[in-house]
Amino acid sequence: MERTHQVQVLETGRVENLADGVFSIVMTLLVFELTLPTEPGANLAAALGLLWPKFLGFAISFALLGIYWLGHRSQFNYIKRADHVSHWLNILFLACVSLVPFSTKVLGRFPQDRLALILYGSNLIVIGLVLNWKWAYALRGGHLIDRDIPDVIARFGTLRCLLAPACYAIAIGISFVNPTLTLILYACVPALYIIPGLQRIWLHLAQPARSPP
């Protein structure tokens, strides 16, 4: 029985290395869409001006991929083992991450098209949901972690995974009224994770409710 357990439950080093490799490739691929026209005599200023949707998509996606990489890395501060299910959840997560260059390319070429906005937002929603699914599975039963995680950390991890998808869902709804506002919301979501003071607010929200004295 002990031998079976050792076969099914493994260390996480190779999973983390795979994730680092996928993220580095995906983040590099984002820049390939930033290409100037090849026609001789093209006006550089005009060409750069036409690239603004692609620059915006690159900036948003690069920041969000950085955030998702940090979220994935932070989970493995507590997840110390992996099993068959967690391996496939990680593969599903990385598959969704690998689609970001494509959805970013579509957004960059059709920044005011509702379908492009929905496709891009849906891609990011699924990434966040799968990341949360992986986190919830690791916490269930505690067999993938070394110790009991305080409730505040478990809730903070869940909040961190689900806040961005909730924002993207709202942005998709707004695209039916104002596509430009949807782009603005997509651009603002990374700030929720980057600004240090907001992290303290999240941690406060993750605190369990105290019963009245």
Topology:
Elements: H1 2-8, H2 13-29, H3 44-50, H4 52-75, H5 84-98, H6 100-109, H7 114-139, H8 151-174, H9 179-194, H10 196-206
Description:
The chain is mainly alpha-helical and 213 residues long. It has helices at 2-8, 13-29, 44-50, 52-75, 84-98, 100-109, 114-139, 151-174, 179-194, 196-206. 74% of the residues lie in helices and 0% in strands. Residues 1-7 have low confidence and may be disordered.
Short description:
The protein has 213 residues and is mostly helical. It has helices at residues 2-8, 13-29, 44-50, 52-75, 84-98, 100-109, 114-139, 151-174, 179-194, 196-206. The radius of gyration is 20 Å and the shape is globular.
Could you tell me the strand content as a percent range?
Answer: under 5%
| Mean pLDDT across residues | 83
Q: Looking at the structure, what is the overall shape?
A: globular
User: What is the count of DSSP helices, taking H or I runs of 4+ residues?
Assistant: 10
Number of beta-strand segments = 0
